[in-house]
Write the structure tokens for this entry.
Amino acid sequence: MDGVLRCSRYAFGPNRLHYCGPDANQEIAAYIENSATDPGLESLLRAFNTMYPYLKHIAAANNIRDPFDERVVEAYWIGNNLLETIEKNDLYRHLLEDHQLKKRLGQKSFDLIADKIGLGAVPHHSFHVLDVWKRTGHLERAHTLESMDSCRIAWGKVMAVDGPKIKIETAPLIYTEGKLSLGEPTEKTISRNLEAVSDIEQLKTGEIVTYHWGVACEVITPRQSAILKRYTLRHIALANQTL
């Protein structure tokens, strides 16, 4: 799949809620529904001021010229070996300079985040959601448990499909005894807003889908879901160290 379109699927959920990126959810949806990509779509995605710097950072660290290369897009949203090649000092500078996290969060909070780099944090979407803990889109506010669970890229097994609604079995983010974890799988209904996407249109029971802010993004393989789970659990464990 084209990396720009794939990235658009993940960016659409928070954009339709006006949390991240430009006020362009209808435009982004139109590109996805028509399976079309051009410099206009790339320009819209570059305006996501949390996502796009991470994509640039992952690409540069791996000598990949295009931040929307599909390997880079997958690394950020799902996870792959590109994340493991990034130097810890480079990630530190990226958070300090490109995301201005010391300025946004203060020295003490920034130091807590920086310490996690040495413990295995990587520039995966789950890191920013679970360990930076403050939403850095249009709403500069601390995450709640509910917003962390909605903002992280989650996955679930399709149990039933009913028009625009998909019933899945998925493990929620929970908070017990002062710690975060993934709970026991429960049933949840998510939206199929991007109806022209062929793999989402033709969903079958038993398939695994990712979702972001309640919107299905794409069908993934069991191997990809295992990778996504591994990075999510890594950053949950790091988050628990400073709760």
